[in-house]
């Protein structure tokens, strides 16, 4: 059974949510993703992206409950986490456009965006692979005498990945200050969660003695409350928590779907999934005028982000192997 | 002078680095009880917060080491079995190795992966007898294969201090080696700097790991007829191409002895680079395991698939006879 103490907002450690700030983050992510998809279709972004649209409440609610010096790891569908943790949208846009001014100097792109200066230990393109990295960072933080917490995101597809379950075991044994956030958006690419997961997601954590809760992943304030409880628990050295945030992916698994159009869900189902929109849920908590003001601010931020990204230089091909080794060891060229 | 064993050299390097740098810690299975003896005495000296026994979860604890290394620690992981590297391959090559480039140099991942008794160790059969150093050199992970106790100490110390992931293979065939050393002279050995163990004028033998000793013995046996130079690259990535080129300037003839499977093994890369870029007066040869070798259990079968002194002797003699004057 899920731990009822984690499910609701009523918790002694819960802080009061800043509704406007949460709305602002949700709106930022939504519009960032919409602008990024446009840039993909315009050929300005090399390859494509995994849009986070629909899942904004999870990133916004969890990151709002973190301290600035806390850490996160993200996923292939990671733009929301990176923006919610505070990365500069202009440098993020420049990164996914492959420019030198990007967060990773154009070396990472959409699936590897990182900003170690503000605790973003990288988006990770192998499903579940960041869970042990986050746990290692949490262990190291405690070794250093810090009370930092690490939050690691993964999707429902990751809960059947062996390394995630191995990590649950070690994180629980060590009471590592880590919060596992599973974004259950219903699909691992095109495979339904029900077709891929025996038992339950929360039950996997509970088998290791890790408290787990199912959370309304479309409501930023519900996510914020649950995250606050889990983070407080981790900070008190009481160990990890799993939050299963039930959400819905509005857009494609990846923008290649816009052309390939694989059939794995009906338009009616997508409409139903979109019926509880985090943007509207959080927007309804603000006065109209305030909401309009935030929307206008976000448009200006993204206008500037796109301009910055597209005006930034492309990396020099001669630097393609820069950063391969920390000590500057030079790799041989592919032709002698 | 003191007699230093290869095993003790590894142990000493870890202890000295743990003493020097409180960020160095040891992860592995049975490392407190030190079933391989590599970590003997460490938990008593440094405590269980720095010497961590792990459950049988190679993927998780290898990934955990990556996260810890990004956050200021310098983990050394001991794998008891070389094939455990296959389980952790994703965490080493796709995670730890790639973070520096993928993040545009925002982070480094200083983890050392140590495999004591790599290669065949007598009777451990198909799943415990691999020697996969060429895989890591191919993928670009820094890879060391020390041949002697002093180099085992020096390369392991360097690996621990290096800011990148480094895999250190300690061949089973070298673990029993001992040498007289002045302990005060033990020092880190830089990556990418080979060592000429024996100077010669006729044929350069590149030998890797435990096969350095075999090459030295064959060189002595052939001393009357062929003057063999024995070159030990010590690290396979980075590789001391300059050192090899200098040796071939002297000899113009090359034989490689390499305990890798033949196809895509480091021996093939050494031959190719020498052929493309260096001074050769005769076609080179390599002595390796066969293509795609899986070591069978029975002693005679196990031995039949590993490079031998006899094969090396034959190869040296053939290369020495071939080709024009230097």
Structural description of this entry:
The complex is a heterodimer of chains A (336) and B (326). By secondary structure, chain A is an alpha/beta fold. Chain A has helices at residues 4-7, 19-41, 56-64, 79-84, 89-96, 130-143, 162-174, 193-196, 201-207, 220-235, 257-260, 267-273, 278-283, 288-311, and strands at residues 71-75, 120-124, 150-155, 178-184, 187-188, 191-192, 212-216, 241-246. Chain A has one domain (4-306): Thiamin diphosphate (ThDP)-binding fold, Pyr/PP domains (Rossmann fold, 3-Layer(aba) Sandwich). Chain A is 43% helix and 11% strand. The radius of gyration of chain A is 20 Å and the shape is globular. Chain A starts with a helix and ends in a 25-residue tail after the last helix. Residues 1-13 of chain A have low confidence and may be disordered. Chain B is an alpha/beta fold and 326 residues long. Chain B has 13 helices and 14 strands. Chain B has helices at residues 6-20, 42-46, 58-70, 84-87, 89-96, 99-102, 133-139, 149-161, 211-221, 241-251, 266-277, 299-304, 309-321, and strands spanning 2-5, 24-28, 51-53, 74-78, 112-118, 142-144, 166-171, 178-181, 195-198, 203-207, 228-232, 235-237, 254-261, 285-289. In chain B, the strands form three sheets. Chain B has a seven-stranded mixed beta sheet with strand order 3-2-4-5-7-6-12, with helices on both faces. In chain B, α11 links the parallel β13 (254-261) and β14. At the A-B interface, β2, α6 and α7 of A face α3, α5, α6 and α11 of B.
Widest sheet: strand ordering of chain A: 2-1-3-4-8-7
How many distinct helices of chain B?
A: 13
- Briefly note the CATH topology name of the largest domain in chain B: Rossmann fold
Mean of pLDDT of chain B:
97
- The DSSP helix count of chain A reads 14
**Shape label of chain B:** globular
Largest sheet of chain B: 7 strands, mixed
The whole-angstrom Rg of chain A is 20 Å
CATH topology of chain A: Rossmann fold
What is the terminal-to-terminal distance of chain B?
41 Å
Classification by helices and strands of chain A: alpha/beta
Structural class of chain B: alpha/beta
Fraction in helix of chain B: 25-40%
Total domains of chain B: 2
- The count of β-strands of chain B is 14
Give the CATH class of the largest domain in chain B.
Answer: Alpha Beta
H-E order of chain B: EHEHEHEHHHEHEHEEEEHEEHEHEHH
Beta content of chain A: 5-15%
Give me the CATH architecture of chain A, please. 3-Layer(aba) Sandwich
């Amino acid at each position: 059974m899920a731990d009822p103490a984690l499910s609701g907002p009523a918790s002694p450690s819960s802080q009061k949510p800043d509704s406007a700030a949460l709305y602002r983050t949700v709106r930022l992510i939504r519009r960032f993703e919409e602008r990024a998809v446009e840039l993909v279709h315009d050929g300005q972004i090399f390859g494509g992206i995994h849009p986070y649209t629909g899942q904004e409440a999870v990133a916004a609610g969890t990151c709002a409950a973190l301290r600035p010096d806390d850490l996160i790891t993200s996923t292939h569908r990671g733009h929301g986490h990176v923006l919610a943790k505070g990365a500069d949208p202009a440098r993020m846009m420049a990164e996914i456009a492959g420019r030198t001014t990007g967060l990773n100097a154009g070396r990472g792109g959409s699936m590897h965006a990182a900003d170690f200066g503000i605790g973003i230990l990288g988006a990770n393109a192998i499903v579940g692979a960041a869970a042990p990295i986050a746990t290692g960072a949490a262990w190291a933080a405690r070794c250093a005498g810090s009370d930092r917490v690490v939050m690691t995101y993964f999707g429902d597809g990751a809960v059947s990945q062996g390394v995630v379950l191995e990590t649950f075991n070690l994180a629980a044994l060590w009471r590592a200050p880590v919060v596992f956030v599973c974004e259950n958006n219903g699909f691992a690419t095109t495979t339904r969660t029900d077709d891929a997961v025996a038992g339950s997601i929360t039950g996997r954590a509970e088998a290791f003695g890790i408290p787990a809760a199912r959370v309304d992943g479309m409501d930023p304030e519900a996510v914020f409350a649950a995250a606050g409880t889990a983070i407080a628990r981790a900070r008190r050295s009481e160990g990890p928590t799993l939050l299963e945030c039930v959400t819905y992916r509005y857009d494609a698994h990846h923008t290649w779907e816009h052309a390939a159009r694989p059939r794995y869900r009906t338009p009616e189902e997508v409409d139903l999934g979109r019926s509880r929109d985090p943007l509207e849920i959080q927007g309804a908590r603000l006065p109209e005028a305030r909401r309009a003001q935030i929307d206008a601010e976000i448009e200006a931020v993204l206008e500037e982000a796109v301009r910055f990204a597209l005006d930034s230089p492309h990396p020099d091909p001669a630097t393609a192997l820069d950063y391969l080794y920390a000590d500057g060891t030079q790799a041989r060229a592919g032709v002698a | 002078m003191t007699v230093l064993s290869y095993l003790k050299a590894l142990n000493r390097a870890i202890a000295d680095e743990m003493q020097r740098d409180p960020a160095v810690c040891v992860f592995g299975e049975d490392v407190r009880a030190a079933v391989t003896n590599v970590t003997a005495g460490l938990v008593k000296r440094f405590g269980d917060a720095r010497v961590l026994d792990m459950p049988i979860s190679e993927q998780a604890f290898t990934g955990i080491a990556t996260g810890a290394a990004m956050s200021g620690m310098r983990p050394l992981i001991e794998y008891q079995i070389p094939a455990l590297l296959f389980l952790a391959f994703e965490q080493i090559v796709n995670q730890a190795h790639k973070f520096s480039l993928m993040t545009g140099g925002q982070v480094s991942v200083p983890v050392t992966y140590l495999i004591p008794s790599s290669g065949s160790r007598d009777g451990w059969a198909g799943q415990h007898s691999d020697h996969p150093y060429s895989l890591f050199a191919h993928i670009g992970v820094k890879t060391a294969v020390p041949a002697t106790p002093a180099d085992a100490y020096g390369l392991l110390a360097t690996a621990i201090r290096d800011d990148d992931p480094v895999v250190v293979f300690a061949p089973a065939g070298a673990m029993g080696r001992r040498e007289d050393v002045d302990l005060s002279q033990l020092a880190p050995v830089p990556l990418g700097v080979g060592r000429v163990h024996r100077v010669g004028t006729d044929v350069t033998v590149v030998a890797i790991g435990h096969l350095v000793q075999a090459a030295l013995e064959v060189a002595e046996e052939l001393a009357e007829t062929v003057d063999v130079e024995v070159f030990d690259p010590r690290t396979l990535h980075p590789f001391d191409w300059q050192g090899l080129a200098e040796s071939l300037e002297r000899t113009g003839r090359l034989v490689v002895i390499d305990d890798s499977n033949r196809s895509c093994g480091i021996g093939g890369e050494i031959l190719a680079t020498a052929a493309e870029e260096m001074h050769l007066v005769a076609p080179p040869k390599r002595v390796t395991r066969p293509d795609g070798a899986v070591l069978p259990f029975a002693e005679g079968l196990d031995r039949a698939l590993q490079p031998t002194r006899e094969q090396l002797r034959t190869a040296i003699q053939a290369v020495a006879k071939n080709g024009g004057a230097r």
